[in-house]
Specification:
This protein is α/β, with parallel strands linked by helices. It is 43% helix and 17% strand. The protein is built from seven helices and nine strands; from the N terminus they run E-H-E-H-E-E-H-E-H-E-E-H-E-H-E-H. The protein has a seven-stranded parallel β-sheet with strand order 3-2-1-4-5-6-9, with helices on both faces. Strands 7-8 form a two-stranded parallel ribbon. Helix 1 crosses helix 6 and helix 6 packs across helix 7.
Length: 232
């Protein structure tokens, strides 16, 4: 297990180009949680000179992920923020990315020695849901748990409050509304992406409680507070 500022062990991050993944990477590097951080993705990311020097990047073809098993070797912890949307990838593409890619990556990580897998899922995830998004999230949760990690932490955030790099007009409107609601009910309907990232770090720093732990939105807020913001 890594210790805050200790810089021991190794981790990988899937989905570092996304909103949560970018903030998570910033947290990991700022706190020097791991001695080795590897980003696994379909392309190299431009991170800036300092970050570039602090991480390794493994470029993989997710359609042929089994050929990239080496990228998953030797990590203590795996963070997964990988995901897309139905609007961007279509229904089949969404299922392939959010369920199939994640499940196969989890299997490769476990085979490579990963002991703790941290998965960003979604509030309402349910393999029996009528809604595709929630059903796929529930299915991938089940698949990841079945891999058999020593520890598996699943985070189920509500609507993420963030400034997206890509344009999602409907989500932007929802975020504006929920940003106001959050002032009255701070943990009910939304969560800042920074809080999710800090909760992901915190669940690794704290001792494990059971083999599988599912963190709902309120618990994410609480755990995120357990890791102080940088500069405070």
């Amino acid at each position: 297990m890594a210790a805050a500022g200790g810089g021991s062990g190794s981790c990988f991050v899937l989905g570092a180009s996304g909103e949560t993944g970018r903030v998570l990477l910033r947290e990991l590097l700022a706190r020097r949680v791991f001695a080795r951080v590897t980003l696994i993705g379909r392309r190299r990311l431009s991170l800036g000179e300092e970050a570039e020097a602090a991480v390794e990047q493994a470029v993989v073809d997710f359609e042929r992920l089994g050929e990239h098993a080496a990228a998953f070797q030797g990590h203590d912890v795996g963070f997964c923020c990988l995901g897309t949307t139905r609007a961007k990838a279509g229904a089949d593409g969404f299922v392939r990315v959010d369920r199939d890619y994640v499940a196969q990556a989890a299997e490769l990580a476990r085979a490579g020695g990963c002991k703790h897998f941290v998965l960003q899922s979604s509030r309402g995830a349910n393999a029996q849901s009528r809604f595709l998004y929630l059903r796929v999230k529930g299915e991938v949760e089940n698949l990841v748990q079945a891999v058999g990690f020593d520890r598996c932490t699943i985070l189920r955030p509500a609507v993420l409050l963030c400034k997206r790099q890509e344009s999602r007009p409907t989500e932007w409107i929802a975020q504006q509304f929920l940003g106001v609601v959050a002032r009255v009910f701070p943990t009910a309907y939304s969560v800042p992406v920074e809080t999710v990232a800090r909760a992901m770090v915190a669940c690794v720093l704290q001792p494990g409680e059971g083999k599988v732990k599912v963190l709902e939105n309120g618990a994410i807020h609480e755990l995120g507070k357990a890791v102080p913001q940088q500069g405070t």
